[in-house]
Amino acid sequence: MKKNIAAFIFILLLVYLPGCVPHTTGDTEVGVRTKKMALFSKKGVEEKYYAPGSTYFFLPFINDWHTFDTKSQNLEMTFESGRGDRSTRDDLVFKTIDGNDIGLDVILVYRIDPNKAPYIVQHIAIDDQTLRDKIMRTIARSKPRDIFGELKTEEFYVADKREKQAQRAREILQEMLEPMGIIVERVLTKDYRFNAQYQQAIEDKKVADQRVEKNKSAQKAALEEYIRKLEDARGEVNKMVADADGVYQKAKIETDVYFEKQKLLAEAIKAEGLAEAKGIQEMNKAMMGMGGEAIVKLAIAEAMQGKRIILLPVSEGGMNLKTTNINDLINTLGIKALAEENKEE
């Protein structure tokens, strides 16, 4: 029995091997084999992929061969004709949350997970183009519309707002497509456009806003200039106050010095007066003693020394000042003195 089975296998090999045909994969491609008939294995899609850059030999007719490119691919949907996946306008057209029509250019960057290639052949698509047209375009043109439609019209002018929604779109698409063996790497936004009249209205508003901002800037600059001048004025006032305080302090110090000097001088004068008064007091005490009269007489004698003494006529035992004409007496004494001087000459 064993010999018969071995002989049968040998005969099959002799029959089929000469009829095998080559199946190749490119540098970035993986292959998936589907067995239509199988004698010693399970028929259907093999649960493995064939590596890139290789050649494999299978019998024709009873095997199918499918390849998928695993490099990053761009699905570009743009307004510009002749560019992207379509020769006509292909951008995403939708309404913003505040009701305005908008067209948005979107690029979806994705690639295939090689491990999921057999699953894709069995359940999703049999080649790259079918996967791109039936799955990627359908999902990429529907879900991002809802996500970007959450923005207000003016928010499309803010790059950070668009980028935030693009990242959110990538996360949601990845969640949807990952089970299918598709990895979403990036969602990119390019140009956007509104209704022509509305676009003009927005542009006019932007110009008006720029003028407002320019006026605000001018107002702010004027306010800053005013504050600067106010600070300069405050600085000048503070300087004047400081100078006045300096003059005041200098005058106060000089006044205090002069006051102390006069105070000391007054105290010295007072001390000198007290000493002199005390000396006079002591003198008075001495004069009131026994030698006081002698001292007085001696002082009178010293005062009379060298003085001319004139005898005045007296009557009734002395000079009668009541009846004597002093003026005539002085004149008479003066004439006599002159006569005597003339005689001596």
Short description:
This protein has 345 residues and is an alpha+beta fold.
Would you mind describing this structure in some detail?
- The structure is a single chain.
- The chain has 345 residues and is of the alpha+beta class.
- It has 3 domains: 67 residues, no CATH class; 122 residues, Tetrahydropterin Synthase, Chain A; 87 residues.
- The strands form 3 sheets. Strands 6, 7, 8 and 9 form a 4-stranded antiparallel sheet that branches. A 3-stranded antiparallel sheet has the order 3-2-5. A two-stranded antiparallel sheet has the order 1-4.
- A hairpin with an 8-residue loop joins strand 2 and strand 3.
- Helix 3 crosses helix 4.
- The radius of gyration is 66 Å and the shape is rod-shaped.
- The relative contact order is 0.06.
- About 3% of the residues have low confidence.
Give the CATH class of the largest domain: Alpha Beta
Q: What do we call the CATH topology of the largest domain?
A: Tetrahydropterin Synthase, Chain A
What about the largest sheet? 4 strands, antiparallel
| Overall body shape | rod-shaped
Task: Give the DSSP E fraction (strand runs of 2 or more residues).
Answer: 15-25%
Overall number of domains: 3
Name the helicity range. 40-55%
CATH architecture of the largest domain: 2-Layer Sandwich
Structural category is: alpha+beta
Mean pLDDT: 82
State Rg.
66 Å
Order of helices and strands: HEEEEEEEEHHHEHHH
**How many extended strands?**
9
Q: Catalogue the unreliable spans.
A: 10-18
CATH superfamily of the largest domain: Band 7 domain
Beginning-to-end CA distance, first to last residue = 205 Å
Number of helices: 7
